[in-house]
Design a protein that fits this description.
The complex is a heterodimer. In chain A, 26% of the residues lie in helices and 20% in strands. By secondary structure, chain A is an alpha/beta fold. In chain A, strands 6, 13, 14, 15, 16, 19, 20 and 21 form an eight-stranded antiparallel β-sheet that branches. In chain A, strands 1-8-4-3-12-22 form a six-stranded parallel β-sheet, with helices on one face. By secondary structure, chain B is mostly helical. Classes of the chains: A alpha/beta, B mainly alpha. The structure holds flavin-adenine dinucleotide (FAD) and iron/sulfur cluster.
């Protein structure tokens, strides 16, 4: 059942067994598992519920509808990095690309051995991954509906004898219409609003949408409930409040919001990890012009990847954005911009994300509100140099007539000599035009309160009744897209709360 | 959006409707006043939509955007120095001037410009007829047709 703040005309007071703040990859999963296990569950979501039939607008218009701050959220630092995130029932999963990776074994080993998180073993996760993948129908992307931007890259890699693979995605009958990041209009993408949440509702969970969490109800270091404000769809407060008493409060408002919400409520403020250790998986792409018409916007935009640079902390992944979004990033103005956009149907793009060793922090600044401070360190700058140079080489060797990059000072390459110029030339953090789609770690899990905000039981150190379960608890960067890891963590928390064990 | 103080709201309201002409001239220059582009565009609508979009941004971004618009137009130090405001420059000078902003070696200058460019150009390229003219027609129609299917087929 969904209660919409846009329509609520009175204050509401309720009791539940558990209340979950946020309905994304973390929140929706824990809510559904708890509801299915017999608990009475409430979900509080700041964004609205968008039916599939509402996903008919242009991508650019969808930014205003489905993204927080119209997609304008940006880090402060060098470089300034846009970090788009979803604001809707289903969270960022509504606007993500649907790529699914299990947590890499090397990362689990790092958590186990180096971070002393002994319970996060490979064996303990395998049944959980199976369950998550079944719920969201993880399956390999089909070549027949892939964007040509992906298949042309596959053809070039194959010719070079380099391994690449179709990505695994959470889809059911994908038509390859290419709008995954602007709300899937067919319901093929198994985002939380079409997979976990409907099941949570069947088991009696109640979601309050257009409803913003404001405060915890606290009794002697024990969180016993929450208070939230209803607002109109357009954002104005509607003057009514929601008060929920519950013995379990689970924060899943995302890596960006969770630490600041805790701080605003005076919770865990003494923990020096709160808001710190933030990693982003910064990502960029190159454009490659071919004589052939690519029309990269037709077909699944993110469907192919290669791990050829994995040992250097770089994961190559397909990406293609529709022209109204691409226009934002084109490094030209005037006639060159017009020419670029006219030629866009001839462009292929491919991108990569880096497993970042840089780290940032979430904090509140006057005028700016909640903000991220993050500077790219030298080691990560070098990863960008390598990734861009590699993609440019692949495309030029594969027949592209020109390659365009988002690096200041290296806007376009026509020959391999141009690529060498990048390989040997100067490059600073501020020269890199990148974005980040995977903020993680701002309330990371740690084996003690000195190393983390939550323990491996997801409970906030020093507080009873308060748990965190979203991207913020992920202990370190993954080097791959995180939604399945976040869902696996959420499943783990739910089973722990239910006192059950998942076995294969 | 973060909550605003009364002073912030007043500043917001004051600046929201200002700078429309600057915005229009900037958008025209971004596409080099090219008839092949502008013929597919209802310019006034683009300007109004861009203006509305800016006025709905969080306060900090709104103010930064507006300030940059003025900095660009009046070529104010320390970021640039020109005797003639942007709006009075002939097209070729304007294009050269914008390229200076875009490729500046001063990081903050080009970052501010990127923010303005990003908003202006994306509004220009969200004009449906312009998108159709560059070949985006089929995908756009496919997306819109979805809304006409019965619920169970969506
Ligand atoms: C464009 C894009 C593409 C991506 N593609 C992929 C991909 O292909 N594969 C992948 O694995 N990952 C992808 N990601 C990342 C992935 O979607 C996120 O990492 C994941 O959804 C994060 O889950 P979460 O639960 O931490 O937060 P979210 O999913 O962001 O959910 C948090 C929710 O909390 C709500 N909230 C915030 N504050 C409050 C408040 N005060 N009160 C009530 N509610 C609140 C928010 O509105 C939001 O709905 C992508 C991200 C983006 C932006
Ligand atoms: S390509 Fe289209 S149908 Fe497939 S998941 Fe993306 S939006 Fe949905």
């Amino acid at each position: 059942m969904i209660v919409d703040g846009d329509e609520v005309g009175n204050d509401i007071d309720e009791h539940f067994d558990a209340v979950v703040i946020g309905s994304g990859a973390g929140g929706a999963v824990v809510a559904k598992e708890l509801a299915e296990g017999g608990m009475r569950v409430a979900i509080i979501e700041d964004g609205a519920y968008h039916k599939l039939s509402s996903h008919t607008d242009l991508p650019y218009e969808a930014l205003g509808r489905l993204y927080r701050d119209k997609g304008f959220t940006t880090t402060l630092g060098k470089p300034a990095i846009p970090i788009p995130m979803g604001r809707a029932l289903g969270g960022t999963t509504v606007i993500n690309s649907g790529t699914c990776f299990r947590t890499p074994k090397s990362v689990l080993a790092h958590w186990n051995n180096d971070l002393d998180l002994k319970s996060l073993t490979e064996e303990s996760f395998s049944a959980i991954f199976d369950r998550v993948e079944k719920e969201i129908n993880v399956s390999e992307a089909d070549f027949s509906v892939m964007s040509r931007a992906n298949t042309i890259f596959h053809e070039i890699l194959t010719k070079k004898g380099v391994a690449g693979h179709p990505l695994k995605r959470n889809i059911r009958g994908c038509e390859g219409c290419g709008f995954c990041c602007y709300g899937c209009p067919t319901g093929a993408k198994q985002s939380m609003d079409v997979s976990y949440l409907p099941k949570a509702f069947i088991h009696g969970a109640k979601a309050y949408v257009n409803c913003t969490f404001e405060q915890f109800i606290i009794e002697n270091n024990r969180v016993t409930g929450i208070q939230a404000n209803f607002h109109r769809y357009a954002g104005a407060n509607n003057g009514h409040t929601l008060r929920i008493k519950a013995p379990r409060v689970i924060m899943a408002a995302g890596t960006f919001h969770t630490p600041q919400l805790l701080r605003d409520c005076g919770v865990a403020v003494e923990n020096r990890n709160l808001g710190r250790n933030l990693t982003l998986h910064p990502a960029t792409k190159v454009f490659a012009r071919f004589d052939e018409e690519i029309r990269g916007w037709e077909g699944t935009p993110q469907a192919y990847y290669s791990e050829v640079l994995k040992d250097q902390g770089i994961t190559l992944e397909g990406i293609f954005v529709p022209p109204d979004i691409a226009a934002m990033t084109v490094p030209f103005v005037g006639r060159r911009l017009n020419e670029f956009m006219r030629e866009y149907k001839h462009m292929a793009t491919f991108g990569f994300l880096i497993s970042d060793s840089s780290s940032g922090r979430v904090m509140k600044l006057p005028l700016l509100g909640t903000t991220v401070l993050y500077n790219l360190n030298k080691a990560d700058v070098e990863k960008f140099r390598k990734g861009v140079a590699y993609l440019a080489r692949v495309f030029l060797e594969g027949g592209a007539t020109k390659v365009y990059t988002l690096l200041h000072g290296y806007p376009e390459f026509s020959t391999l000599a141009d690529v060498e110029r990048l390989e040997n030339g100067p490059l600073k953090a501020e020269d890199i035009d990148c974005m980040a789609f995977h903020p993680l770690g701002s309330c990371r899990m740690g084996s003690t309160a000195e190393t983390g905000v939550v323990g491996d039981d997801f409970r906030v150190y020093g507080w009873e009744g308060l748990y965190i379960c979203d991207g913020s608890v992920i202990p370190s960067p993954l080097g791959v897209n995180p939604q399945v890891t976040i869902m696996a963590f959420a499943t783990r928390l739910a089973y722990q709360m239910l006192g059950k064990r998942l076995t294969q | 959006m973060t909550r605003m103080t009364l002073v912030q709201r007043l500043i917001y309201n004051f600046f929201s409707t200002r700078g429309r002409r600057m915005l229009k001239e900037l958008i025209i220059t971004m596409c080099a006043d090219d008839h092949a582009v502008l013929t597919h565009v209802r310019l006034q609508r683009v300007v109004l939509r861009t203006e509305k979009y800016i006025s709905e941004l969080p306060f900090f971004y709104f103010m930064t955007f507006k300030a940059t618009l003025y900095l660009i137009n009046y070529a104010l130090p320390p970021l640039s120095w020109k005797l003639k405001p942007f709006m009075w420059m002939p097209l070729e000078r304007r294009l050269q001037y914008l390229e200076e902003w875009q490729s500046s070696s001063f990081y903050y200058k080009r970052t501010l410009f990127k923010m303005v460019q990003c908003v202006c150009v994306s509004h220009l390229y969200s004009e449906r007829r312009l998108l159709i003219s560059i070949g985006f027609e089929k995908s756009m129609q496919h997306r819109q047709q979805r809304s006409e299917l019965p619920r169970e087929q969506q």
